[in-house]
């Protein structure tokens, strides 16, 4: 018997999507395809990033939230081209630096910057928890973004009195087929899918931002807290859901096959959940 027979699973991937669909369909699942992101290369708004860099250089900076190694490396590389790298490093040197994981730490140390604290889990949620209960009133924060917007986090920090400068290093464009994504959101709201898979943090962000923009946010969050399983390929992807307080699962090994294998176990265990 096929272990996923009778289950409907939404797939949000834009890359390696055929491989994932094949893995699921071979196990009997009915797949609802709706890429959350474009297959085009990431977009870099260099003019906007330079403006942010110049603002950061003017300082002062109290706290830096460095969220990815590739993002920090790309930022410093762009600053090199503009002749602002030394000034950027100097502006960040006197600040408290929170880093998300060893790759981010490595990118910082290559520029002579020392992190004050690092998230061992590599999860954004751990960084957020580290700031809980802290007085941020008047704190000047630099929030490094990468492929996904962290506007929800930025707004939360501003709500606590902080002055937040968000540095968007690059953006992955939204899906070229928004109608399919909206149809998947409708299916999630109506509990017509049993699970939705995510293979990147930007895909999580894109789906949730579309839900918010189309007035489905509360219904989508309620569905994911109920019978619809949010299935992620790994902890970094799963951490993106923390901003919306949405539970998710991920396998020990960040691999497509491991994610699909986990679905074979998790979905039958959740069969008793009703809509």
CATH architecture of the largest domain: 3-Layer(aba) Sandwich
Classify the oligomer: single chain
Number of E-state strands = 9
| Radius of gyration, whole Å | 20 Å
Helix content: 40-55%
CATH fold-level assignment of the largest domain: Rossmann fold
In total, how many domains does the architecture comprise? 2
Order of helices and strands: EHEHEHHEHEHEHEHEHHEHH
Query: How are strands sequenced across the largest beta sheet?
Result: 5-4-3-6-7
Strand content: 5-15%
Structural class: alpha/beta
Number of helices: 12
Low-pLDDT regions: none
Distance between the termini: 26 Å
| The CATH C-level class name of the largest domain | Alpha Beta
Mean pLDDT across the residues is: 91
The best one-word shape is elongated
Major sheet summary line: 5 strands, parallel
What does this structure look like?
- The protein has two domains: 127 residues, Rossmann fold (3-Layer(aba) Sandwich), CATH 3.40.50.10090; 123 residues, Rossmann fold (3-Layer(aba) Sandwich).
- Helix 2 packs across helix 3 and helix 3 runs parallel beside helix 5.
- The strands form two sheets. A five-stranded parallel β-sheet has the order 5-4-3-6-7, sandwiched between helices.
- The model has no long low-confidence stretch (mean pLDDT 91).
- The chain is an alpha/beta fold and 275 residues long.
- It has twelve helices and nine strands.
């Amino acid at each position: 018997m096929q272990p996923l027979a009778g289950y409907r699973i939404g797939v949000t991937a834009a890359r390696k999507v055929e491989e994932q669909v094949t893995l699921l369909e071979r196990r009997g699942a009915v797949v609802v395809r709706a890429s959350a992101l474009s297959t085009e290369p990431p977009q870099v708004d260099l003019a906007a990033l330079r403006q942010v860099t110049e603002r950061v250089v003017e300082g002062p900076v109290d706290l830096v939230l460095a969220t990815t190694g590739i993002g920090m490396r790309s930022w410093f590389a762009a600053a090199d081209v503009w002749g602002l790298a030394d000034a950027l490093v100097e502006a960040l040197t006197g600040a408290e630096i929170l880093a998300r994981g060893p790759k981010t730490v490595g990118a910082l140390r290559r520029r002579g910057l020392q992190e004050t604290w690092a998230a061992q889990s590599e999860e954004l949620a751990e960084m957020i928890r580290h700031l809980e209960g802290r007085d941020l009133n008047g704190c000047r924060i630099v929030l490094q973004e990468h492929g996904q917007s962290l506007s929800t986090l930025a707004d939360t920090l501003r709500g606590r009195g902080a002055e937040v400068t968000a540095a968007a290093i690059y953006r992955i464009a939204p899906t070229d087929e928004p109608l399919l994504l909206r149809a998947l959101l409708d299916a999630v709201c109506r509990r017509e899918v049993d699970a939705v898979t995510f293979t990147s943090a930007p895909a999580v962000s894109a789906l949730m931002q579309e839900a918010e923009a189309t007035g489905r946010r509360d219904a989508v969050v309620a569905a994911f807290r109920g019978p619809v399983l949010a299935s992620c390929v790994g902890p970094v992807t799963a951490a993106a859901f923390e901003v919306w307080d949405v539970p998710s699962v991920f396998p020990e090994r960040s691999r497509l096959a491991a994610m699909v294998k986990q679905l074979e176990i998790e979905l039958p265990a959740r069969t008793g959940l009703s809509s």
